């Protein structure tokens, strides 16, 4: 949120947010040179892919162990039916081979990684990056490696099966040939009752690995061949959001013009550093608001004069598409009229969710280890320096202990002693939609809206919205995947961004208005651009005036230039931090930043019952959204301005003393904020000091 006295700049919305980094420099003095920034961003991308690889392997181990629990001396028909059912829910598991283990058999084979922690059922999981079979590399087979060509995995041969084995699923000939050596190693491990994981290998540039999981009684074992297409998806996704490739390499769907935000002059974007201050809009569109609605006759004359092919109306604002005139010509036409309030480009909003962290992946596995015996909840940050009156609430979600550093560092676990959310406070996510069938989001999602196709579900075809949804409200204590920050708040997915992670001003504004009209009390906006839009701002003010808390990501270009919607005075702006409470080095900063939250390699839900680690202020934003939902759940009488002020005043100061441009008021502190909402602690709801509602300049 920019202070009312500050000038408003411009920026286009994007569907993903970027993570912030600790930098105290002035806007003219960038912390790193462009080439170094490229290297940092590539390192974070590699880190996210590597962590996602480990998440996938852990989940596959869990799924097979859960399958064992449902078998219990089942007959062959039941075993095969159970394996097929698991594959139907987890399409990345290409084949399953149930192997009876003969008593006393033993063939030399691979042993599990030394020191790996036990998973349910007595199996082991990797203890660090690249863990698996001896000599394996967690990054082997990451997209880009070469491999043999492959036929569709649905057709081909079953893995070679011996007498008594039960096989579900088929491999293509090329895949079967490449997987065979690893399958043999897996069977050797099975004969010894040991877990096995192969390194990644590629077939037709697609990464795979082979897994063996012995039954708890060691009398049988399951060998699985797993396709890790999620690694390619995360890599491609983050290349866009980290701006490692120019804006929208595929311009076939959108007639896009990249321009300097201040001048609207065309700008060639050939380097990620060029994205700073760059906006994008649809070339032949204009957004117009009249002082009074034009008559049908007047609108018809306008259409004829400019050669309009399409006219959309939302509220009292028109989006007009011309056959040949471009945006600047259309704006000149309308700005000459006396009855026009504003005429502006039809801006495009894009995803913004990849960080440029500098820490090696190893920090991830050292942070808040699951072997820790005490529940003191002390963290490495100032947020946990004071002794806790209440122990941390530790969830049983299997990926929590090892991967969710973001929850203890924000004192979320301790805050759960006081409030875990309520179904009455609805949270809307205006994004790419959400995977409405994800097993870790079951019961957490309510009816949403697809702005792009109102007849369809708001199904996520990118992954970003599903990831944001999981950070806020993945099921807690269900023994699966990750834990969300709220236990009971319902999530309303609103799809305003398309399959490329891009959406228009119209779609985003419509999504905000729809969510407001359907009862959302908090709205998450993990998207942004550098152009201020009157059209979008009107939608923001519509929600704000109806007591909605709007939370937005600051952006991922490591610039002090204000991004929108985060810099609007009605919006709460979020920067991103890493596990050491430093500003994520790619995160935007400035005097409009309200608070900071974790945004580097955040583990969360991903489409098709998978999990991924993503970075960006897009990931930081939903942490603050979840906190706002917890505060409104703890004290329903709080106004939106009071919720925002409580989050500021209870934040942990982690930068320069007092408010600063990198972290705003500091890192969110869930425990302290929820206590304050309940009328406890030194900061309390309703005390003098709450800022008045901002006034747009």
TrEMBL record:
Taxonomic superkingdom: Bacteria
Localization per record: Secreted
Stretches for region Disordered: 94-167
Keyword Membrane: no
Main subcellular localisation: secreted
Domain Fervidolysin-like N-terminal prodomain intervals: 273-346
Active site: 431, 464, 618
Sequence ranges of Low complexity compositional bias: 103-128, 136-164
Domain Peptidase S8/S53: 423-666
Gene3D superfamilies linked: Peptidase S8/S53 domain
Entry keyword annotation includes ATP-binding: no
Family: Belongs to the peptidase S8 family.
Protein's name in the database: S8 family serine peptidase
Organism expressing this protein natively: Paenibacillus chitinolyticus
């Amino acid at each position: 949120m920019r202070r009312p006295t500050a000038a408003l700049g411009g920026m286009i919305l994007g569907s993903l947010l970027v993570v912030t980094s600790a930098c105290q420099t002035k806007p003219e003095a960038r912390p790193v040179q462009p080439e170094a920034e490229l290297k940092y961003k590539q390192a974070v991308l590699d880190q996210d892919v590597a962590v996602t690889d480990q998440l996938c392997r852990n989940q596959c181990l869990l799924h097979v162990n859960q399958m064992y629990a449902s078998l219990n001396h089942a007959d062959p028909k039941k075993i095969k039916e159970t394996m097929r059912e698991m594959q139907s829910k987890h399409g990345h598991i290409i084949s399953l081979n149930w192997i009876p283990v003969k008593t006393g058999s033993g063939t030399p084979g691979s042993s599990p990684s030394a020191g790996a922690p036990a998973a349910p059922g007595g199996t082991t999981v990797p203890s660090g990056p690249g863990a698996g079979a001896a000599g394996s590399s967690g990054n082997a087979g990451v997209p880009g490696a070469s491999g043999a060509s492959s036929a569709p995995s649905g057709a081909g041969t079953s893995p070679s099966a011996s007498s008594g084995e039960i096989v579900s699923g088929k491999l293509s000939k090329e895949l079967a040939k490449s997987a065979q050596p690893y399958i043999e190693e897996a069977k050797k491990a099975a004969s010894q009752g040991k877990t096995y994981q192969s390194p990644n290998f590629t077939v037709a540039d697609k990464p795979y690995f082979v897994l063996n999981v012995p039954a708890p009684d060691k009398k049988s074992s399951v060998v699985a061949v797993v396709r890790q297409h999620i690694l390619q998806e995360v890599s491609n996704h983050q290349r866009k959001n980290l701006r490692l490739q120019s804006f929208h390499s595929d311009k076939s769907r959108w007639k896009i013009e990249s321009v300097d935000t201040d001048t609207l002059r065309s700008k060639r974007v050939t380097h990620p550093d060029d994205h700073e201050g760059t906006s994008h809009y649809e070339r032949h569109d204009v957004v117009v608001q009249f002082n009074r609605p034009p008559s049908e006759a007047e609108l018809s004359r306008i259409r004829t004069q400019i050669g309009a092919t399409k006219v959309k109306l939302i509220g009292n604002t028109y989006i007009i598409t011309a056959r040949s005139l471009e945006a600047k010509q259309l704006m000149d036409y309308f700005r000459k009229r006396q009855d026009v309030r504003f005429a502006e480009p039809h801006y495009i909003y894009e995803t913004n969710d990849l960080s440029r962290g500098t820490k090696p992946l190893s920090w991830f596995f050292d942070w808040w280890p699951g072997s820790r015996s005490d529940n003191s909840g002390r963290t490495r940050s100032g947020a946990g320096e004071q002794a806790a009156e209440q122990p941390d609430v530790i969830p049983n979600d299997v990926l929590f202990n090892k991967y969710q550093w973001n929850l203890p560092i924000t004192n979320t676990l301790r805050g759960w002693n006081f409030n875990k959310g309520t179904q009455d406070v609805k949270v809307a996510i205006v994004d790419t939609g959400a995977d409405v069938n994800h097993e870790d989001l079951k019961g957490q999602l309510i009816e949403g809206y697809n702005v792009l196709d109102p007849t369809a579900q708001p199904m996520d075809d990118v992954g970003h919205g599903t990831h944001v949804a999981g950070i806020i409200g993945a099921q807690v204590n269900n023994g699966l995947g990750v834990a969300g920050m709220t236990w009971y708040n319902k999530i309303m997915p609103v799809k305003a961004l398309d399959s490329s992670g891009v959406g228009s001003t119209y779609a985003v504004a419509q999504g905000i208005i729809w969510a407001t009209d359907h009862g959302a009390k908090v709205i998450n906006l993990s998207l942004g651009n550098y152009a201020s839009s009157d059209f979008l701002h009107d939608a923001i003010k519509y929600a704000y005036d109806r007591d909605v808390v709007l939370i937005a990501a600051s952006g991922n270009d490591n610039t002090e230039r204000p991004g929108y919607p985060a810099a609007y005075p009605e919006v709460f702006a979020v920067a991103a931090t890493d596990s050491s409470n430093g500003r994520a080095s790619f995160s935007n900063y400035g005097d409009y930043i309200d608070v900071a939250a974790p945004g580097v390699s955040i583990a969360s839900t991903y489409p098709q019952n998978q999990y991924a680690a993503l970075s960006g202020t897009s990931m930081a934003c939903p942490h603050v959204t979840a906190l706002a939902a917890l505060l409104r759940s703890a004290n329903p009488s709080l106004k939106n301005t009071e919720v925002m002020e409580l989050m500021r005043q209870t934040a942990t100061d982690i930068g320069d003393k007092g408010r600063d441009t990198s972290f705003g008021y500091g890192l969110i502190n869930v425990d302290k904020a929820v206590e304050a909402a309940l009328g406890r602690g030194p900061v309390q709801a309703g005390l003098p000091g709450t800022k008045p509602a901002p006034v747009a300049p």
